[in-house]
Amino acid sequence: MKNLFFIILLSILIGTIPLFAQNSSESMDQKIEEIIKQLSLKEKLDMCHAQSKFSSKGVPRLGIPEIWMSDGPHGVRAEIAWDDWSHANWTNDSCTAFPALTCLAATFNPELSYKYGKAIGEEARYRKKDILLGPGVNIYRTPLNGRNFEYMGEDPYLASKMVVPYIHGVQENGVAACVKHYVLNNQEHWRDHINVELSDRALYEIYLPAFKAAVQEGNVWSIMGAYNQYRGQYCCHNELLVNKILKRDWEFDGVLVTDWGATHDTKQAALYGLDIEMGTGTDGLTSSSKNAYDNYYLANPLRKMIENGEIDESVVDEKVKRILRLMFRTNMDNSRPFGSMNSQEHFDVAREIAQEGIVLLKNENNFFPIDPETTKTIAVIGENATRMMTIGGGSSELKTIHEISPLEGIQKRFANAKILHAMGYSSGPSAYGRVIPSKLNADSLQSEAIKIAKQADMVLFVGGLNKNHHQDCEGDDRLQFSLPFGQDELLSEILKVNQNTAIVLVSGNAVKMPWISKVKAIAQVWYLGSEAGNAIADILSGDVNPSGKLPFTFPVKLEDNAAHSFGEISYPGDGVNQEYKEDILVGYRWHDTKNIKPLFAFGYGLSYTDFEITNVKTDKKIYQEEDVISITCEIKNTGNLSGKELIQVYVNDVKSSVLRPLKELKGFKKVSLNSGESKSIQIDIPVKDLAFFDDKKMNWKLETGQFKLMIGTSSKNIINTTKIDVE
Ligand code: GLC
Question: Which residue from 84, 111, 136, 435 has the least number of CB within 10 angstroms?
Fold first, then answer.
């Protein structure tokens, strides 16, 4: 009888029996308070930790549902088993694989980011997931980080502008985004324990902004804590990062979820803001008599501390309040849409983002585009021409409904050409079930490649990195800056027999390019997901004019990179501690300020047409702190192909009391123009965005005086510099 009463009461509260729900003026929080009063301590604690690999308990007695989570940032991962990392081998969980987030960042197009979030959110909703474990916004600090492909580059402003629309798109589906990994998880090596030390300025100016934007502009409903430590406390229960910055200063009202197995201490987890503990090492449902999940830090150990009065139960109530708030926004909101899966619309979104994210790095004598009607012989060489890239890489792996390979895309689009293919090199047997030709050995592969290179009018070398361990893969970092698997050597052999060679780089990180002066063209094509081959062919054929821009710097050599300029303590650390000694000078900030010429600059990318920017103006010359700077200019497409250009605005504080980078990105806008067309563009920059973080006052500080506004089409190609004064 008692339970029936509670179920009726709860149904009214949740609104499944809309007796009072419609006209109930009760706020969500009042409903939540009412529910919490019904719950036993055990029921509350059960909601604060996993019950399986990817779910946490509801309250069956009261009809409160479980929370189901799924990776990842590029698509909804195949169902994982209840209690271990194996696949559940369902047959209805194939998904659309969207491009990796470095590609999305390379579009510099927030509208595409919204489309991305909406589409992936529809697939997560359709798969009945309440939390999508993405996107990731950790800053690109070293080219060796195994997970850079999952993130949005080296610049906090770019990552901040691109993460917000993605979150909105996902959460419109009644699915919580879960921005990760909060914070300073900028490498995979020793990720599970390394203690990161850095200045407050670097923390606030470089590593926090994208997370702050996710919370304050994106209204993200959950955040994932990182594995590593910061100032000696693990990020998932870090008093400064979680209680102070995330929940007090930023007023984050959602749920902090741990990374899987990132909880280390019951009392800290209880008191320092951890809401749901996931993935703690358990012996699963093996011989142990007790359910191993009861051994979680927030399970029995916390219950004992509450029962003996060491910790107050209100600590748990706060967690449950946040969890129920997420549920009212997701699986307890019965007005949310139903989602969709593997639709042509989703494939089109994946293809559009891929098209717009591909970066043309070199194009001597207009090598690209290749005339699609050509009958020439094209040799396509390289393992990445056929290798699946949606599998592997760690938790962002996907079981995709289809993945068009670069070779397939090229064969389809260049149907009139004679396409030859050779693997050329092999990354060796991979853990992801690839069938490796039995006659495989490096010499036979190379001689096959040279043979077809000799016969061809042109060579498309489709190489790069892949999702193997120690490549673009979670769990550890790359071991070298150069291309792996003997690609450089193979390329030099190919170039001896055919100079008409272009490179199609399938990768998520910068690489060394010793052959750069000898190849005719280079396209950086990222990991593009289901529509990879189609999008690559769209660009190579000129069907689509490339407009991608690099979201991170390509250094000439590893030693030119900031993180690799201060010895082992800077990267990868000494095994216990790590110091970000480059401080705020990450990426182009380092290259500009130290005058180290990059191979390719942040914000750089070529087009098949040309643009001219003129008549740059600001609305005023002198600004107050509460003003907004309006920068206008004219841009004309002076070429004979329609295309898109990215106008970028960088700022320099001419005279400041502290070291500031030579330039910092503070505005950008992508413009689409037909041949001969002109448009006038306006980019607005709030004056307060020109401030730096004063680590004496622990607050942002805007100093008066002169600032330079640099307008350009890459961080190196500045077309106009305008000076303004802030009073
Ligand atoms: C992994 C990753 C995280 C992922 C989680 C669940 O260790 O770090 O990004 O969402 O565990 O797979």
Answer: 435
